[in-house]
Amino acid sequence: MKSLKYVWLACVFFAMLNDSMGQKKELCVGHHWTEDEANLKMKEFAQQWNDLESWETRANKIKEGIIKGMELGQMPKIEENFNVVVRNAKHMDGYIVENITIESFPGFYITGNLYTPVTKRDKYAAILAPHGHLKDSRLRKDTQIRCATLARMGAIVFAYDMVGFGESVQVNHEIPIAMTLQTWNSKRVLDYLLSRPDVDPERIGMSGASGGGTQTFLLTAIDDRIKVSAPVVQVSAHFFGGCICESGMPVHRYNGFQTNNVEIAALCAPRPLLLVSNGEDWTRNTPIIEYPYVKRVYALYNAEHKVENVHLATEIHDYGYSKRVAVYNFFAHHLKLNNRNIPYNNGYKEDFVKILSPELRVFDKNHPMPSNALMGDQAVMDYLKIYNN
Asked: What's the longest Cα–Cα distance across the chain?
């Protein structure tokens, strides 16, 4: 937990630095509002719509603001061309894990691991698994357990590095366009999964915690191909994300229009959405502030049964066992996975997962990064011609 807080403080610093460079009036950084202010703001937002038509008018404006704020329209117009490298298959108990790289755009690589079921099917569900601000988070025990368990349940799971973390070393995490790169990487992971003939396009899920939760609700908001979404310990009315990758671009406010992460998460409607919250962080008010607002949106679609909140008041900011179990059950129901494949004895047993480390790394002396790799923040921004100045 201490390391997570240190990383978060560093991210706040860099986001504040961006403010001082001219974006302060448009950016909503970290604890931008107090809890009292956020409560009043949610009531103010609720007065802006009263039926499906007026909500969808607002929703379209929020979506447009995200896309424009990230300058996603300036990203390369590419299809397929993933230049996939999959290697080092490891056959485990009920699942297979492989190392994978795909090209996000020419010269920029997504590094990750692909978890697949051993049970043969014509079509599988697929799940995107981004992560938050911890060193080598893709290789952490909780990430491996979650991805392996979902694979044993019958899903293809793609766990991939946050930019500037793990093996994603072509840029620093504090690059001004971190939010753009992360969202684009997630889109490319989704594109890749949907390009596979063994993936069912109607059963696509996404889940991450903390900064991975931000990646989850952002992509879900702007891409309807995500069919089931489970952002963990991140959706908050008053907290906008403390890192430049979450609040370093003007996606929450532009031209006098204001929104927040609660409304962005609500853009998932009427697709299934699970909000997982806890009592220790900025999601402690979810049952009484955030969830009721989102549920009201779902009611417009007669889809109240498709949105849930699991609140763990005695727990902290993590993707621990209780949170994973909630996601297992939610995905099992909505993605038609088999949770009976998980050993059970007064609770799900995850001890079938063997924790690996160096074996999961994509690059080594025998498998170096491709020679065309763009190296450094400036090289990537110059290639894309996106600078977030």
From this structure: 60
> What are phi and psi for residue 341, nearest 5 degrees?
-75, -10
SS3 344: strand
| CA dist., res. 19 & res. 17, Å (int) | 5
Q: What is the pLDDT along the chain (389 residues), one digit of tens a residue?
A: 444 444 444 454 444 444 444 445 689 999 999 999 999 999 999 999 999 999 999 999 999 999 999 999 999 999 889 999 999 999 999 999 999 999 999 999 999 999 999 999 999 999 999 999 999 999 999 999 999 999 999 999 999 999 999 999 999 999 999 999 999 999 999 999 999 999 999 999 999 999 999 999 999 999 999 999 999 999 999 999 999 999 999 999 988 899 999 999 999 999 999 999 999 999 999 999 999 999 999 999 999 999 999 999 999 999 999 999 999 999 999 999 999 999 999 999 999 999 998 999 999 999 999 999 999 999 999 999 999 97
336 — alpha (psi -120 to 50), left (phi > 0) or beta?
A: left
